[in-house]
Write a structure and sequence with these properties.
By secondary structure, this protein is an alpha+beta fold. The mean pLDDT is 88. It has a domain at 1-15 and 29-78 and 229-235 and 255-426: paralog of FGE (formylglycine-generating enzyme). It contains 13 helices and 14 strands. The strands form five sheets. It has a four-stranded antiparallel sheet. Strands 12-11-10-13 form a four-stranded mixed sheet. Helices cover 27% and strands 15% of the residues.
């Protein structure tokens, strides 16, 4: 922060010269900047579209009435977040926890300090050797299951202790309650420290289905390399949101290190951004591929869902299958229908289409533990491998509770685009 302050002062002083001949020319020397496209994402341009039910379905029309909306451009993950991508999050958080344990016994090596000797973070470049691990053995033992919880006296990592801690600022409340909120006011009054257990619930395949044998999926789905490119499941809304925050900080740390501007947050999409992206630039289309049918002219299924009367394998997939196994929509996005349903950031209200704005519509409510259950309902979209065709169309909407996880819901991230269009020169 000290270096940033000095650089800022130098920049201001450099811009205060008399070379403008007394004319209003703006601050000079500012470089052109192009919004970098995050790896694995697709650009979704600004546009307008009709959202809501696509069929003559009276009950669905009550909770998804048609409405024209306009949505600002954003980048969206090409596919759902996969097991291996989510594993990077888990491993990084675990690494930080281990380094915290190491810092307890060797602060000089594993922490970074400023010129005044104040700790400013962990030293990620410090190599952990056998001597370090031996010195921190007692601290590291706290991360394992105790003897009463282990099988066959095997030492195993207690995944309940992989906790991601991050700072969250409620800007919406600050903007609503303060006409002129300052940065300090926002931080002091609306800052919350979040602590989230981030390891997926690997028991969901067994718990979701009574009288059904799914133990092999429970045992291997998340950790086995065979499933690296399959969508992660067993993730609740809070965990998906924590992943987005970690990914944002991880990316912006790189940009800061190379002296570039940081970018907007990676986050869960609103349900309207999701529907706009799913339609692929088409209007009133029932499915992302455009037509009203779930098979192409050759009789091949176009998504992983539950065809016919439960013939799961007719579309080529029994459970979730590898991401991007079917054709993308016109934006280039895969699996916007079927495979796994996807969390959005939006709270669920039956009448949301009626009262939300027509410009970037959104309805968010971050429910607290002591608030009514209805406020903890979060919209999921897209349908999944276990849903029939009706629930994988673009306009269908339903919900799950924000603290629940299951075997058929995953997520993907979006990032708001800075600027009018990626076709602009700067």
């Amino acid at each position: 922060m000290r270096l940033f302050f000095y650089a800022f002062v130098a920049f201001v002083l450099a811009g205060c010269g008399a070379g403008d001949r007394g004319e209003l020319t703006g601050v000079q020397g500012r470089p052109a900047w192009f919004h970098p496209q995050p790896y694995g994402t697709i650009y979704v341009p600004t546009g307008s579209i009709h959202i809501g039910a696509n069929e003559q379905d009276v009950p669905m029309a009550q909770i998804a009435p048609n409405k024209q909306v306009s949505v600002v451009a954003f980048y969206m993950d090409e596919t759902e977040i996969t097991n291996n991508e989510y594993r990077q999050f888990v491993v990084t958080v675990l690494d930080s926890i281990v380094r915290e344990k190491m810092a307890e016994v060797n602060e000089e090596k594993f922490t970074l300090k400023d010129a005044e000797g104040n700790r400013i973070g962990l030293n990620w470049d410090a190599k952990i050797n056998d001597d370090d691990a031996k010195a921190a053995e007692e601290s590291l033992r706290e991360l394992a299951y105790n003897e009463q919880e282990t099988y066959y006296r095997t030492k195993q990592l207690d995944v309940r202790k992989i906790i991601y801690k991050y700072e969250d600022i409620d800007l919406r409340s600050a903007a609503r309650l303060h006409r002129k909120p300052s940065y300090k006011t926002t931080r002091d009054k609306y800052k919350k420290m979040q602590e989230v257990e981030i390891y997926p619930d690997t028991l969901v395949f067994m718990r979701d289905y009574t009288f059904s044998y799914n133990e092999p999926m429970t045992s291997v789905y998340f950790w086995h390399p065979k499933y690296d490119d399959y969508p992660v499941v067993g993730i609740n809304w809070n965990q998906a949101k924590a992943f987005c925050r970690w990914r944002t900080l991880y990316l912006n740390a790189f940009y800061s290190d190379v002296g570039d501007y940081t970018v907007t947050d990676l986050r869960l999409p609103t349900e309207y951004e999701w529907e706009y992206a799913a339609r692929g630039g088409r209007d009133q289309n029932m499915y992302p591929w455009g037509g009203p049918y779930v098979k192409n002219a050759k009789g091949c299924s176009l998504a992983n869902f539950k065809p016919m009367r439960g013939d799961y394998m007719q579309d080529g997939g029994l459970y979730p299958i590898r991401a991007a196994s079917y054709f993308p929509n016109d934006f280039g996005l895969y699996d916007m229908s079927g495979n796994v349903a996807e969390w959005t950031v939006s709270a669920y209200a039956e009448s949301a289409n009626l009262f939300t704005h027509d410009l970037n519509p959104d309805y968010q409510y971050d429910a607290k533990p002591d608030e009514p259950e209805t406020l903890k309902r979060k919209v999921i979209r897209g349908g999944s491998w276990k849903d029939i065709a009706h629930f994988i169309n673009c306009g269908s909407r339903t919900y799950e509770y924000q603290d629940s996880a299951n075997s058929y819901t995953g997520f993907r991230c979006v990032m708001s685009y800075i600027g009018r269009s990626n076709r602009d020169k700067n």
